[in-house]
Amino acid sequence: MEDVAIVGAGQSVFARSCGESIRELCFEAYKEALEGLDITGNDIDASVVCSAPEYDKQRSPSGLISEYLELTPKPTFYVETVCSSSSTGLRVAWSLIKAGLHKTVAVIGFQKMSELSSRDAAERMGRGGDIIWESPFGITMPAGYAMYARAHMARYGTTEEHLAKVRVKNSHYGVANPKANYRKELSLEDILNSEMITSPLKKFDCCANADGSSCIILAGGDVAKSITKKPIWVVGLGAATDTMSMAGRKSLTGLQCAQEAAKQAYEMAGVKPQDIDVAEVHDCFTVSELLAYEDLGFAKPGEGAGLLEDKETYVEGKIPVNVDGGLLSKGHPIGATGGSQIRTIVRQLRGEATEAQVKDAEIGLVHNIGGVGQYGNVTILRR
Amino acid sequence: MEDVAIVGAGQSVFARSCGESIRELCFEAYKEALEGLDITGNDIDASVVCSAPEYDKQRSPSGLISEYLELTPKPTFYVETVCSSSSTGLRVAWSLIKAGLHKTVAVIGFQKMSELSSRDAAERMGRGGDIIWESPFGITMPAGYAMYARAHMARYGTTEEHLAKVRVKNSHYGVANPKANYRKELSLEDILNSEMITSPLKKFDCCANADGSSCIILAGGDVAKSITKKPIWVVGLGAATDTMSMAGRKSLTGLQCAQEAAKQAYEMAGVKPQDIDVAEVHDCFTVSELLAYEDLGFAKPGEGAGLLEDKETYVEGKIPVNVDGGLLSKGHPIGATGGSQIRTIVRQLRGEATEAQVKDAEIGLVHNIGGVGQYGNVTILRR
């Protein structure tokens, strides 16, 4: 079976409100993904459209978007694992190519969250948890991650300052990212003094809702080499779940779905955590990035905060993480997020990252989580 | 690459209202699919969950259902192409296995439509069309298919009696199907005299909303042979789209997505329409079955009604179609429908169909359409 590469990657500007219809929003990312390729839309064999439903009123958006991108009569379908939908889409597209059904597949992620009020959006997000036993009792996304933060603090002595330092780093890099929604550098004090959302998570410990789209184009090896000089190879794929219910979790000091997905991806790629040159991790909350350091093996359990103290996850450090600003700066348009993370790593491995380029990056990793650790996806890319 | 087979197939009873939560509903189909196999749930590597969102309040149901079926930490995700979601799920599961990511994958389809009023359900369904340019102006599902019926009548002289004869056949076979929602035999007069819904489609020309679930378990060749004596091989897969907008259609006398998907599936399987021993086609309306005869090449364009006149699509005919009663008898729980059609063909090819067994059936076909011909899926199975 031939290898599969990413040949194009694009995203829209992530914004609080995009002022466009979802089809127009998706076109922005698709256009950037096709730029510089020796193909046109006619050469795309199929598309996978990724988002979380119910934020906008359009049902079955894959058909609509496929028509707008002039992909009819090519097949399209919709894939969802909430916040990790477009990483799941990549996994599916990779399989379609590997299985021989298609040569070139576009993975389009989007979310238009601005159609709902923040209150309604939070309610919809909560319904990504168990709506009989948990979400009606207040287990929303911030509350779920706050439980992880509290457990990590209790077990390892992690502090609110440690969490805030994730945002200090990410806000620093977000300033230089023209596609980010939030481009203001924040001090430790700004973060620690911001409004409490759900203890210990404060306003600036949380990423913001956004409108946005992303597009990743994959192709089989021979095709990939013929249409771009810089194919980025998908060498490791991991996917796992944890229980939907928080009550079913065996531990709250790490995300088991991420640990398991990482194990699979490292094994498939034949690499170890220390081989990774640059990573994008799912920092929907500051604590999520800290957990990711440990779940991915960049630090031992309980020692993630040390990486921040030593600035090892900055661009000059041992393992630069989220040097595009992360979700905390970019915003988190649910279905578009994974594709945006992948785009950043593609640009890093091509040496084309304008916000902060990691020198000679060869192997990159994307960690993308759905819900409060229900769905874990780890993808390893290589130039 | 090894071949992929269906090793298990199950469905719940389709009913107007199931009185269960979606997780319990899915368990019914999963349990039947596992029956008689030399494996347990522990041997399932991954699941693909298929439905159309917004009928029930649970978001991201794949995680919830996966947990309830005790599949955690195996990966799961959600796939949607409205009414053809579980055929798309089968295509994706086939690719995951073929690509080497998994050995055994469960495709679980469900819909619990009873949580909405009929009026609300119709409105949601309409939003499967273009919500800016079309559905607000009345292009709901019945209206879309009525346009196809009118165009077919105008061009080929098809009559309302021809349409009604589809229901006469399907209601006849539905009586014997214990999983069907509607089990009463209907006469030509019953159908022609039923209430007008959207001319020329009357009440009995339309399938009914239902609650229901289906489950198809696929496995790679070696595994398949080791766990069942009767693997059913997936030999042809076709998928295509037509424009989301009705205004974009090039013709209204046939579904182009089905014609294209059929072409792909026949080519991949190396068979012709006349090789098919038994078929399940997407009879969401009577006219849909008539269009399918022609789109699949069982009859020439405009000659589909002749097959019915000659009873060639009855169980003793040249090409038996929907001899389990079809959606018109079973009901149409959106996400579960494709899986139910596949289950029927699996039972036919195994010689285990209790409602009406086609003698010595060796090759079967499933035609499953999403929306008003937006998504076409054709699957060819062989024993």
What does this structure look like?
Two copies of one chain form a homodimer. Chain A has helices spanning 22-34, 61-68, 85-98, 118-126, 141-156, 160-174, 188-192, 221-227, 256-269, 286-295, 304-309, 326-330, 337-349; strands at 4-11, 46-50, 76-80, 104-112, 196-198, 201-202, 211-220, 232-241, 278-280, 363-370, 375-382. By secondary structure, chain A is of the alpha/beta class. The first copy, chain A, folds into two domains: 4-117 and 210-232, Peroxisomal Thiolase, Chain A, domain 1 (3-Layer(aba) Sandwich); 125-208 and 234-382, Thiolase/Chalcone synthase (Peroxisomal Thiolase, Chain A, domain 1). At the A-B interface, helix 2, strand 3, helix 3, strand 8 and helix 9 of A face helix 2, strand 3, helix 3, strand 8 and helix 9 of B.
